[in-house]
């Protein structure tokens, strides 16, 4: 097996194992020993790629963002250069973030409490910037294909959507928080803005 293939397999196993453990016991209780035992990987194999569980958590957080981007771009590349099909992929992501059991929400909240760690702080900064960049890219892609008005400021709007999505994710982790403005409302709000405020009455995403 080539070195790159071995690296990818090890990283995949680490991420899958960590996600299973997060679902079982949350982020705070997990130890590297737990990850070793559940994954079947040796200490040397794991520490060859990461120095701490926080690095694996960062991979898990970043993975969802890239998956959403991949799904969005796949819709565009397969000729569905309209508004609705690519928007559906963004909507799926938004709806998933409202789930209090969403693993990436648990990871995000955990890492936000570790911002004193320089490695975590840098990773969070990169994650936020990447989120804004991709939101901007999705808007600009829609503008390129004539389905989002040029009057939409891609940079400011992308930043706003990122802020609102993060707020939704944080609220989902607050026990029994009252939610008048829900994920469905957020996806419709985003749609309205990207459609230039011209969403047709009764139209579904």
From TrEMBL:
Coiled coil: none annotated. This is TetR/AcrR family transcriptional regulator. Residues 31-50 bind DNA. It comes from Paenibacillus pinisoli. Residues 8-68 form the HTH tetR-type domain. SUPFAM superfamilies: Homeodomain-like (SSF46689), Tetracyclin repressor-like, C-terminal domain (SSF48498). It comes from the Bacteria. GO terms for molecular function: DNA binding. Keywords: DNA-binding.
């Amino acid at each position: 097996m080539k070195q790159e293939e071995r690296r990818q397999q090890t990283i995949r196993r680490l991420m899958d194992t960590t996600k299973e453990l997060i679902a079982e016991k949350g982020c705070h209780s997990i130890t590297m020993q737990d990850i070793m035992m559940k994954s079947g990987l040796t200490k040397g194999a794991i520490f060859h790629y990461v120095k701490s569980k926080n690095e694996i958590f960062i991979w898990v957080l970043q993975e969802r963002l890239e998956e959403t981007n991949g799904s969005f771009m796949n819709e565009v590349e397969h000729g569905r250069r309209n508004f609705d099909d690519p928007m559906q992929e963004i909507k799926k992501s938004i709806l998933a973030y409202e789930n209090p059991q969403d693993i990436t929400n648990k990871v995000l909240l955990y890492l936000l409490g570790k911002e004193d760690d320089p490695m975590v702080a840098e990773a969070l900064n990169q994650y936020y910037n990447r989120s804004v960049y991709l939101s901007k890219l999705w808007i600009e892609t829609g503008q390129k294909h004539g389905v989002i008005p040029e009057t939409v400021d891609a940079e400011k709007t992308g930043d706003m959507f990122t802020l609102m999505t993060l707020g939704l994710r944080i609220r989902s982790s607050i026990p029994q928080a009252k939610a008048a403005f829900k994920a469905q409302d957020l996806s419709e709000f985003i749609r309205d803005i990207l459609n230039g405020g011209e969403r047709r009455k009764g139209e579904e995403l």
